[in-house]
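Sanity check

After download, print the first record. It should look like this:
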Amino acid sequence: MISAQKLFTDHASHVVLHKLLEDSIKECEIATLQCRQDDTTEIEALSLSRKPLSDMPLAKRGVSATERVADQIRAIKDGEELMAKKRKLQIVSQYLRLYDTIMVMFTEREKWFVNQFFIQKQTMVQIIESAESPFYLYDRSSVWRFKKRLLMKADAMLKM
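Expected structure tokens:
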């Protein structure tokens, strides 16, 4: 379970991580497909200690036990890495959905505060002194109490 403060603070990094994981999974899947297609050529090259000639027929897939085990280990490692990335992507996607759901339930003033304080990383002083801020010239303690109520409201939504 993630807290509202952590969800808001890490939102920008979650967006970036989501994109990176999607790209990484695509690359990993493409590499796995290419690896499977190149296995016969790779084994031929290893057995001949050179690249096979392009017009020469490839040897049958009669590989040694060592090569078969090495292929299985590589496939297991590639599969585990891919599954770990997919699990991480699921978690990050869930965080992004939680953030979007909470933001729909917030008022415009609450959305503005979350964006400025947690995403844009503005300080309380900057928020209070900004002329376009809904908290312009408020007392700092009032804004801190607003933040506390906002986080309590978000945490209650996350527990549901």
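If your output differs, re-run the checksum step. Summary of this record's structure: The mean pLDDT is 84.
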